[in-house]
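[job 0412] stage=fold_complex status=start
inputs:
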Amino acid sequence: MHGFAGDTLASALLANGVSRVATSFKYGRPRGVVGHGAEEPNAIVQLGQGGASVPNLRATQVELYDGLDARPCSRSKAQRLAGTFGRFMPAGFYYKTFMGAPQRWTAGVARPTALWTASEHVLRRATGLGRVPAGNDPDTYDRFNRHCDVLVVGAGPAGLAAALEAARSGARILIADEQAELGGSLLDGSYSLGGEHASKWVADAVAELASSADVDLLPRSTVAGYYDHNFLTIVERRTDHLGLVAANGTRQRLHRVRAGQVVLATGAIERPLVFANNDRPGVMMASSVSSYLNRYAVAVGDELLLFTANDHAYRTALDWQRAGLAVAAVVDCREAPEGGLVDAVRGAGTRVITGHAVTEASGRRRVTGAMIAPLGPGADSLTAAPQHIACDVIACSGGWSPTLHLSSQTGTRPRWHESAVAFLPGDLGKRALCAGAVAGARSLRDCLEQGALAGATAASRAGFGSGRTTFTAPETDEPSQAPSRALFLVPHPKPVSRAPKQFVDFQLDVTAADIELAAREGYTSVEHVKRYTALGFGTDQGKLGNVNGVAILARTLDQDIATTGTTMFRPAYTPVTFGAIAGRDVGEFHDPERHTPMHAWHASHGAMWEDVGRWKRPWYYPRPGETMQDAVNRECLAARDAVAVLDASTLGKTDIQGTDAAEFLDRVYTIGFRKLAVGRCRYGLMLREDGTIFDDGVTARLAENRYLMHTTTGNAEAVFAWLERWHQTEWPELDVYLTSVTDHWATTALVGPESRAVLARVCDDIDLSRDAFRFMDVREGHVAGIAARVFRISFSGELSFEVNVCAQHGRQVWDAIVEAGGEFGITPYGTEAMHVLRAEKGFIIVGQDSDTTTTPHDAGMDWVVRRNKPFGFLGDRSLDVSDHRREDRLQLVGLATTDEDTVLPEGGQLVDKPEAEAPVPMAGHVTSSYHSARLGRSIALAMVKSGTTRLGDTLHCPLADGRTVSAKIVSPVFYDPDGERQNV
Amino acid sequence: MSDGPGVVMRESGARGWWNLRGDGDEPRFRDGVAAVVGVSPPIEPCTWHAAGDRRAYWLGPDEWLLTAEHGTEFESPLRGALHGRCSIVDVSGAQILVNLSGAQAGEVLRKSSPYDFHPRRFPPGRCVQTNFAKATALVAANADASFDVVFRRSYADYLRGWIADAGREYGFLRGSLGTDHPTRRQRQPAQDDD
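[job 0412] stage=fold_complex status=done
writing structure:
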């Protein structure tokens, strides 16, 4: 097929005589293009194949490009819509395959039935009309934050006037429009402004805006969501019009806009009229017929019948006539329409049939004519039998429905205005304004003047200009318009339930009969009827059908439309790609990796990684041919027998200063810090208010009023926030300052019997001897010539020194220590070996061996709890609640498997009698489990009911494969129970 | 973009950085800081002061970030001058400073942070701690229309990559700054855009 530059997919299809673009979702009826913009319910297409494929696009909004490949999204009978579009110029068009393999329907859904109701699985089918792309999306998307004083949504006459006025005040303006060109409805019609074609005025307005400082124009940009506090999202399609995949750059950009003021100039959508078989291809909106004719030079048929309830649509008859095409008749439901446009049409010799309505469209695959009949006074009956008029296009206009989706998203309920025959936006408060057709304006002059006033007002509210407008609307050629008639459902000779289907929602095949049925079944709330019938549930959110549905419900319930009300709309206005939402937060940017200063060394030494919070930590360093267990065994034995080195930089570190620093620590830790000597360290447990273990770590006293707290790696931010919260909200009187220094220090932990010897090679100003530098001391000096703070603390039970230097020198000091350790066989080790070493010693890992129910007593850590502090500590009182004093609580124990080579699974459930009848009472669960190279056997930590009183008992762990592993309860300290190895 | 890169990122070499806490309402505190650092701690929120190589960024009502040339010693002198009524912490290892210049430097910020960096709202002399991609950063506006971005060392690999990616469409160049001034314009041999 061929089209022209500037065509949409819909205009090109129509130009090529494609009248059927979809098959309806429920009844399998042929459907054609109805609209020309976001409202289009039928021509929903999926572009392309594979990972780049995009579903749920409206053909009316897809700009044509060379090679475009599209297919209908409708699932009932998937038809290959089009082949490939060849070159734009010269035109010469061939239409390729239009058939495809029918898809299977599930029984009961496909069968047309008047009693069909919207069960959930049907709705799911309905809402997901496209297919999920297969494979990764090759395109790039990103997000952009924007701020402006005034955001103008929509660049039709009202929006452009608003932007012009606001821009002249000097305010920062952003104007966004979903179309490729700015101009809105002026692009579609044959309007004149100031005696010239309206496009001249649009071009001048755009040129002025483009040359203004601090004005940004965003065409091809749909304002998709309007959230609290004037936060809006705009999806800008930057390359969609050039091809399926962007040649370079960003395909779509999600603008996240914080606007001081918002002017909604979103226009209005023409409303269909509901009559029998009104879904036949060839039944279209009057404004769409004009748009295709005026903007795309496409005549959607040969002989037009216009069916209208208002004056405005007479323009379509005039446009059609001007193009030299035949108008069969204008059918106006009003008794005595009068106005300039009506006169013009009559003056051109066109037959105008007043007081009549189209009751039914004839033709199956395409309209061949219309049945028309005179309407009774209440528009609920016909006063004579219908007559047939031949035509192949029925252009309809029931009036205009303001596009109030965005105003509605703010939570503002639309209000029904009887005179406007429309829902209008409710009160938007002081930060947003509506202007133009969305606010009910009916003439071009009104749109321009309202827009200008809204622009000036918005700018003034944002602090720019006086709010008075200097705008003088250019002269328009609009005749006065007579009132519209409120007509929604056209009566048929047969009752609604028996008449041919009268469609309200084309996308989901909801008919007038469905709505009447819902009312008969007792659904009276419009929200319930929506869910019962699926009215407005499609990807088009009922842009065409909603008001008619509400009106039909109101009539069925014998109440007015204002009482019936309308459903609300939620973001997004039109579907948004997941790519735009994700932006650049994909792949390497999906989540930040935090790296220590020694990261590159680990990488170049073959480290396997473990994610700890956002940190990448070396897990183990396999040598060629080693399994993970081999590597971990080797690393553990090095730490026990010689010397090993660990990058401990990721530990959370908080510098605490102030005259109340000791008091503060006393309140957040179970143990006391007031009496800790300067230069000494102490292990602390931090509890939640409920007395359960939150964090643990070693805190050093660096000076009289200065401490350094270590937290677990994964908990560092949470602990810091916790400390700040207590300080700022509960104890602001304490003179204490907290500063995170996690990133400042690079920490090299030197572990093992030879660690002193290695450190001595690179440190000559600290006395490292056993008595001068005791276990739990901290000293300052130089390591490898760099100022260092050295802690003699241990998480392995071995002699150990943790060397802290400014991270700027972290790698340098690490390298020096590794080099100094060379002759001792210094071995880098990772988190897995670290875990094994600490488990051999029975040291818990908070969050692995403990959970949010574990108290210090449960973990066997009463030794670190001081209940006699004057102020107490967080969680202190909760330790006395009766449940925490139960004797059968889960308590920390060690497990020694009967078979020394079998390693229990972490998380494994423990039972006393595996053969007991289900449900087998649980005795506890395994929290940590490893093979210990030093002990030559499997070891495990577990939480077991009354565990501390059950030493020597045997428990059983049933495995998923049917085997059961038995293990004896032992002390959790497997190695060096007296702690002699770290005191050498 | 034909006349050069739209975004240039230059990373500062090692500098001294300190986190200072104290009571900015006390003239003695302000005077003491000014005497030692050579820059008074700004009292107006979200502003920074500079004198030569030294800077004081406002972080909060009682918190400032100080920076000076590598090797400077502030800790003991400040403690002495303020008679201990403060908290001063060396955080030199924790900070990475990059300078973003070029016509589209602001676009990179808009891709990275929800804060409003328009010159009307964020003129030279202002600074802000804000979200930056999925990390946080201190952003400061310089008199030459460039921006300094200070972030935590552990996020540096992620953020360097993020900024390079965000700047690529505008033409991106990576260079380095002299080691002793955050925004000195002297050009080092530029590395390639990655």
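[job 0412] summary: The first helix of chain A runs from residue 9 to 15.
[job 0412] exit 0
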